[in-house]
Design goal:
Layout: H1 3-13, E1 16-20, H2 30-41, E2 48-51, H3 56-66, E3 73-76, E4 79-82, H4 84-93, H5 95-100
Parallel strand pairs: 1-2
Antiparallel strand pairs: 1-3, 3-4
């Protein structure tokens, strides 16, 4: 299975997927910690997290998959939602909670 196939499987088989540095309980960058906090504030405690620091192929592959250069990256129902800044803006406007409820 190629890295792109693995990523596609992860984002399609799990309703909410976060590619991040570290884990939800121990984020290893401020941006990842921010997104975990936003998800929890939206009532999402159960999501599939992928620590990109554990796999260099996934770390590079996810950037290519979404054509998005930074991590963290959030996927909901197989769709790329955004990175840290976009998610913060969506959270503040209430839009993210709507996306997460679909």
């Amino acid at each position: 299975m190629s890295v792109q196939e693995i990523i596609k499987e992860q984002v399609t088989k799990n309703p909410v997927v976060l590619y991040m540095k570290g884990s939800p309980d121990f984020p290893q960058c401020g941006f990842s910690a921010n997104v975990v906090g936003i998800l929890r504030a939206c009532g999402v405690d159960n999501f599939y997290a992928v620590n990109v620091l554990e796999n260099a192929d996934i770390r590079q592959g996810i950037k290519e998959f979404a054509n998005w250069p930074t991590i963290p990256q959030l996927y909901v129902n197989g769709e790329f939602v955004g990175g840290s800044d976009i998610l913060r803006e969506m959270y503040e406007s209430g839009e993210l909670k709507k996306v997460l409820q679909t």
